[in-house]
Specification:
5 helices, elongated, mainly alpha
Length: 106
């Protein structure tokens, strides 16, 4: 399965945003947006929502497992393919403040 880079899917840069949320920080981002909209008093945002993970209820373990799988996958790629992936998703990494630290991208 191939997921096109974000600019290929939507015209992010043609719209004016007041906030951009990420799945990784959804609850924190939701609080911020609710506060900006003046509706934070209407929502129950004082508690962390339950984390749903397919095989584990331990969020850190699941995150570690995903990272390990990604590292193993990148280890199977040749340098040329890694470079093409880096170039294809460079805008996504910049827009969403993602990093390749910890992954062998050479």
């Amino acid at each position: 399965m191939h997921a096109p880079s974000s600019p290929c899917r939507c015209a992010y840069c043609t719209m004016g945003y007041d906030a951009i949320g990420k799945l990784e920080t959804f609850h924190e981002d939701l609080r911020y947006v609710a506060h900006m909209a003046g509706v934070d008093h209407l929502l129950r945002l004082d508690e962390e929502p339950p984390v749903r993970v397919r095989e584990s209820k331990d969020k850190d373990k699941a995150r570690s497992s995903s990272s390990e799988k990604a590292r193993a996958f990148f280890a199977t790629l040749d340098a040329g393919r890694k470079e093409r992936l880096r170039q294809a998703y460079q805008v996504d990494f910049e827009m969403f403040d993602y990093s390749t630290d910890g992954y062998d991208m050479t």
